[in-house]
Amino acid sequence: MSETTTLKISYIFPNGDKYEGECSRTSDGVVIRKGSGTQTSASGLTYTGEWGNDKMNGTGTLTHPSGAIYSGLFRDNMYHGKGTYTFPDGTKYTGTFSNNRLEGDGEFTDSQGLVWTGKFHNKVALGLKLKVNM
Q: Which Pfam families does this UniProt record tie to the protein (predicted)?
């Protein structure tokens, strides 16, 4: 087994995307994103966080040009695990994600600041309850 060397790079892709951060070289010499880094797309999408196998894997934050922000766990470039998605209008969902979808227990904070709790499945949340702070 050969030792893996972590490299720090700044790279601009042919499509205009930019990556700054850690990477490593595979056994066949290909450089892949691995470790922590920031990638900014030409369209204004920015991811800062952990990379593995040249994909967003681990903890990170993805900021969309619309103002939407996801902060939490990623797996293979998708929201997967615990996280918070804040919509451009300020409403937000905090809970579990599975392959970019709301999945399981979570809380949705509406535009009035009211917090609704319950089970979420994709875009459906039946039987939500208002969380009352006493």
A: MORN
